[in-house]
Amino acid sequence: MKYLLRIIILITIFFIVHFRIFAQALVNNFAKIYIKQGAQVYVKTNSVSNNDLIDNAGELTIELDFINNDTATGGGAQGIYYVQRDWINNGVFIADQSEVRLYGADQLISGSAVTAFYDLTLTGSGIKRQTINSETMHTLALNDRELATDDFEMLVSNTDVAAITRSTGFVSSINTGRLSRKTDAASAYLFPTGSSDGTLRYRPVSIKPASPAPNTYGVRLANVDATTEAFDRSIKEDEICEVNPLWYHRIYRSAGNDPADVEIFYEPSSDGDWQDIGHWQTFPHWERTNAIASANAPFSTYIASGWNDFSYSPFALVRLKPSINAGNDTTIIRGTSLQLNPTVTGTFNTFLWSPDIYLDNPLVLNPIATPDSTITYTLTIDNGTLCKADDNITLIVVMKPTEIAIPQAFSPNGDGVNDFFMIMNPEVIEEIHFKIFNRWGELVFQTTDKNFRWDGTYKGSEQNLGVFAWVAQVRKVGNISNEVISGNVTLVK
User: Fold this and answer.
1) Statement: the pTM of the whole predicted model exceeds 0.70
2) Are 240 and 386 in contact (CB under 8 A)?
């Protein structure tokens, strides 16, 4: 007891410059430790176990664990706790405006009670890992370290957009763990999320609330295939071809009602090219958010503007199915050429014309076709990730049109010469509707037989000599449309 009281007396002196304690552990049972501003206390190669009160307005450096079983404070000022091993809080920590600096190798933020840090600074080496929810009320300084929240939450309750600082550090989480931030500005809040589990990735998210109303958003980078966490990438709307198999994000809104611009960052060089943000929703299944492409070097980004559906947390980058229109079916004359001009929407890596005959260059998207006979081409496009689309175009090849031969006169006198009015080359006709009118416009003959033969009678009576008008609606062989032709024929004896 005398030894502990002596420590207390020494530590409470205002002008101590540096004070080292060598012991198996510094334990204050029923004794209060006050470290005044300007004082420095160094616990060498040992832990501190607080069972009463540590009121630290100066600097307390602990080379092993800090275990708080009762009450620890920042001395009502800007005290600093330097901890080289684990921070274990089982009691009450009143941060005031203090800083806790974890400067060792792998370290835990642990204990049975949530710690609300004022400033939390991560330095040293290794991963700083939570085994309990925690809060940072002023600045979370990641520097170049990974803060692993695991299944827990790190809440940054300071609503300043600059409340998190970093060089290359990031926050990782698993399952429903997350980095959360309170917001009160219509500004972009960065969530520096990443993971060293498997492939090392830093893939942040920016969330810009629609108004200054209070909200709380949370983000986790899930550095795994979403399917392994029950968000099956194969269950998606028709427009989506592929959901990012490498990683996805879990994004939450745990307080407030504001929609927000949700911006997801990615690296095309290692992640590939993507075309939208998908959200697990509704059925549930993956649906596109119609995000807008942007850039924020060295990243590319997509922004889901004014997003207000946080009922499901998964968000992932997606590729969209390409679409194609090979063109309209076309009739061409044999021996002539036609350039194919398909319309493609979306991105693709390869394409294939099949069959590739009668094409001047099947390796280009717009080849010139000179088919010898009617042919159907299929154009297939592929973006290289199982996203394919195809469409057909048929080129109907016809012979060069032949004029229909129709005489201008006939003599139905029974002499066996030119006794009938008829089409001389009916083989060039596919369909016909033929009508003949007398000089008064009276219909005297009609037929749909291309091999018709009119003998110059109407209702069994011979017609007078004279000129008769005719009109026909005709579709020639090889054509897909009709044409109207007309003329006159003279009946002579």
Assistant:
1) yes
2) no
